[in-house]
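Fold these two proteins, one after the other.
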Amino acid sequence: MAIAVETNRYMYESVLLATDGSETSEGACVHGLWLSHRLGATAHIVSVVDTGLRDRLPVGAGTLRAQRSASHKAIDRLVSVAEEIGVKTVETALDGPPGEQLLEYADDVSIDCLVLGSRGRGALIQYVLGSVALQLIRETTSPVITRSGPPLELTPQSVRSIDYETILVATDGSESAQAGVRTAAALAEKLDATVHALYVINELAYTTHPPPNRSWKTYRRRLEREGRTVLDHAQSIADTHGVVLTETMKVGIPEAEIESHTREIDADCLVMGTRGLSGLKRGAIGSVVARTIRSVAVPVLTVSEEIESSP
């Protein structure tokens, strides 16, 4: 049974699926295969053996041979599922520092989106995709989809069971967050999904630093007005794409409220900008993003403000 494909409406044409053979990475790749099929994209299946482990840990040549064998088996499993659901693939096995190899490959072949688990294998025999996830988010300008769990079996049936009906985008009005809103709206348009936009007033902003020459109540109202402006802008972007958007404003710790709201609306995917209003430059990501991608159960699509045009 084939999955219905959106014909002639491409958002991403090439998607990189990074695997280390772990349950976490394969669960993320199930989502990557579904998205590739739904958008008509080519799936670039890549596995990297970290040969530098020999310099850092007591790993011998036999262990590296076993890793290479496991790497090829992980690729073969993904290719088998991709073939059954009709996704075109390009397979590549690489040696070297995983983050650098994946970034170089993505740049060389002009990858539109990267997909990987937010945690990789543990112990000595690991390909360390978990530690690579944040590196990719920091250093690439392409969107990155990470997923931490729960486990998802790598089968055609698992791929066919996925559907993104509800997309949550967390926004604070920064350039990066606005890029996230544009991406969420474009993705919802392609997938016939609805969008929920969440703005969180950080409670620490008005509980730890007294506002100069104004009451707490006045300061709170100002923060709420700023939030309303941000959500109104998100609504205008959604209107441009012809998708339904629901706005929500909350007060609390941002990452906690984002995780909670993801569960409340039963979101299928969370979209976030990589850097917020703190003024972080390229090469750094917001602490909210770093904590959120490890805590939420749904895939997290992170977007950089350096993407020049919306999908």
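Now the second one:
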Amino acid sequence: MRELKVKEKDSGSPPASGFLPGPGKQRKERKVIYPESDGKPMADNTKQFRWIVKIKENLERMFADRPDVFVAGDLLWYPAEGNNKIRTAPDAMVAFGRPKGDRGSYRTWDENGISPQVVFEILSPGNRKGEMEKKRLFYQKYGVQEYYVYDPDRNRLTGWIRSGKRFQAVEDEKMRNWISPLLKIRFDLRDDDLHIFDPDGKEFETLEAADKRAKAADKRAKAADKRAETADKRAKQSDRRAEILAAKLRELGINPDEL
């Protein structure tokens, strides 16, 4: 969970000299820099990090064949051009209608005015209620359609869906088996843990589990190839023995085709 930056009010005070620019003397406009990092860690602990990566990577896999879906994790989002103080870095986000590709930050005005439609936040013990309320209001203000917060320590999932200009909270009981309107993923909140399933019913898994499964599949494939190779070798040996036998029969004046 990253700290949310909010807009600082302009005091409207004149320059330090006490004089305002005179007629014809326009103040030189400074170029606004949008930092690609806020210097804060992606996660506060291993459990939070594991969940962030798990959600982000499985969403990437889910939309691998969709060139118009951008998925990111811990990427600074600037929704307002000209103000680099208004920013936040969602733990995971999905933007439909935007191409894949590397970005230093997500700037809405460079993305055809499209805000991320789905955002995830994973709580850590250090998160405060006031901080999370600011996050919710931020996402509500800047166009997020679905917002999900998961607390892995308490195994609690909270969701909000946009209704007009405001978020509508999803009832706790519904969240226990909720299907995301946009992502079509299903949240299965059990007593022991949160389980997430893609539209095809495949459960989200950690990178370690995915790697283990891939290695096991590769091992099975190699074993199958070896069995096929052995069977082919045996078939060739059998054909060779048949050829030798047929040749010997012909030497004895016997036509093997008539046997």
